[in-house]
Write a structure and sequence with these properties.
homodimer, 345 residues, alpha/beta, Quinone Oxidoreductase, Chain A, domain 1, Rossmann fold, seven-stranded mixed beta sheet, 12 helices, 30% helix, 25% strand, globular
């Protein structure tokens, strides 16, 4: 089959490799119907050292089960399924608490002998815990939105849920990428009535307004902070959903959060140390939360809204390509020509 | 009157100054019955530069109202009252949300022309919002416990409440100072059944066991982290209440918190930058919360338990002195001869 590999920063290649096959009795093989390129893939695209070895890529996919191991009971050949961006057993104490990203026996795609989603097929470990069967077939009108349940919708939703957004909380969303826009949609779904989206790309912030943003702030840094404060009586918002991952975005979050409020991060931090002392988080009693979203926990909750069209998160995809064009898809996302690229292998 | 002033690290003096008097119609004058020395006073005692000017000290006191401004309605001359460690109007949006430490019109003792509690009397701004009348008189058996409502009990309780401790959460408390011990008592009060106290002073950890600690870990650093993990099936505790404020304690908190868990800080951070990236907080979805406790919010809730003897937090005081001995009281706490020093002016 064909699959995507990254050999270093900016070096993405499509290669032919052996088809995946069942190794453990708990495995399933899924033929990928739709996959996509993630904002977090771009961190690798910028930073990965060239080692001469390629790493398989992609962690978001929906597809059809082609084969199952003897121990798999919840999905069968022909089922149309969603794969979350982490695989998990569904039975350990963390999975039972809804934190599948910390599953005791789980893991992530593209590591430990498991391939990636930007490919024609994937071996899915712990298929019973990992895969969610969609109760409809391959409805073309729904595919894009179903694919967002694999990562970006659940990640935006995790930001809002972790921050405990509700009808009484004001919200700032930092970042107009796909996850930021999903955070807007999620905050609206949870009842927030003031949602301030910080972003500079008008086509994206326009989509953010359709998803529920009530204000857009294009200014950055201190100027952007001042704008948010002006919109909130001087105090900032109860919650800040940080969907970027750079330290500048974290500092902006600290600048716009209200005393007693919550910063919820879902952008993968590209830093380790940052201010959390008296002058930033401690003095005003700010809570910092978030992390890799246990999207598996949210699929059942969000799926009905996707199926009945209440939400249409698939609108974040603004380009569709075939697998052979994935390298150009990375370039398009990196140059911000494309917001999020859908791939049909 | 006599009052305590600090002139620099290690330089505490008792001086005679004019009696405080009503300045604003919202003021009250309180004659101090009991005050005390706080672990956070020791940070100044270690670090304050000598400028030739003294700063008044003390932020914990209970006493009797001697005079009130014309606008004060909730307390009157002769009332026995508790003063929380921040003064606040009780009416702004933050006070109404229970975050009196962020009161729009409030402030802290020993600043902005307001004196400190380690004195014979104090001018209390915004007396209606700040002071809580005790429904009993100066009962000698209750004074020490009532005094803890001024800071350490409310601060320990804030740690536990902010971490959402309940009957299903396991708890680590870092620090066997007065606040750490109050955090133990608070976690127990909120129903926690496993409370691991990290501390090395046997007399203090023994008191911690009386307050509800189920395990004591005297080891520090990696060894201490390993001990907590051993006690918790390898995963750490759901909540960590950090009552120290040094970065080592924060790192220990990160080491013993369970994936998906919460670190709640009430020790005033003596650092600004610290690890919060993928390898510390983000990867395992750790929440970081806490800050200066809005103890005013907790006084009414905790007072009945103090009055009826359900809790006896006053046991953290192991030395009682007069005002003239306050300099030696600082020395005793600094050298850890005393856990917490009560002062009767």
């Amino acid at each position: 089959m064909r699959a995507t590999f990254m050999y270093g920063a900016g070096d993405v290649r499509i290669e032919t490799v052996p088809d995946p096959s069942i190794i453990q009795p708990t495995d399933a093989i899924v033929r990928v119907v739709n996959t996509c390129i993630c904002g977090s893939d771009l961190h690798s695209y910028h930073q990965r050292p060239s080692t001469g070895e390629g790493t398989s890529m992609g962690h978001e996919f929906i597809g059809v089960v082609e084969d199952t191991g003897t121990a798999v009971t919840t999905v069968k050949r022909g089922d149309f399924v969603i794969a979350p961006f982490a695989w998990s057993d569904g039975t350990c104490e963390f999975c039972r608490e809804g934190l599948q990203t910390s599953c005791l026996h789980g893991g992530f795609w593209n590591a430990d002998g498991v391939g990636g989603g930007q490919a024609e097929a994937v071996r899915v470990p712990l298929a019973d815990g990992t895969l969610v069967k969609v109760p409809v077939g391959e409805d073309p009108a729904l595919l894009a939105s179903l694919l967002t349940l694999s990562d970006v919708l659940g990640t935006g939703y995790h930001a809002a849920k972790s921050a405990r957004v509700n009808g009484r909380t004001t919200v700032t969303v930092i970042g107009d990428g796909a996850v930021g826009l999903m955070a807007v949609l999620s905050a609206r779904r949870l009842g927030a009535e003031q949602i301030i989206l910080l972003g500079r790309h008008k086509d994206r912030t326009d989509l953010g307004i359709e998803f529920g943003a009530t204000h857009v702030v294009a200014e950055r840094g201190e100027e952007g902070i001042a704008m948010v404060r002006e919109l909130t009586g001087g105090h900032g918002t109860h919650t800040v959903l940080e969907a970027v991952g750079y330290q500048d975005a974290y500092r902006q979050a600290v600048g716009v959060v209200r005393p007693g409020g919550t910063i919820s991060r879902v952008g993968v931090p590209q830093y380790e140390d940052a201010p959390i002392g008296f002058g930033s988080l401690f003095g005003p009693n700010i809570t910092l939360t978030g992390g890799p979203a246990p999207v598996r926990a949210y699929i059942e909750e969000l799926l009905p809204d996707v199926l009945d069209g209440t939400i249409n998160p698939g609108r974040v995809f603004d380009r569709t390509i075939g697998l052979d064009d994935v390298p150009s898809g990375y370039r398009a996302m990196d140059s911000r020509e494309a917001l999020k690229v859908l791939v049909r292998p």
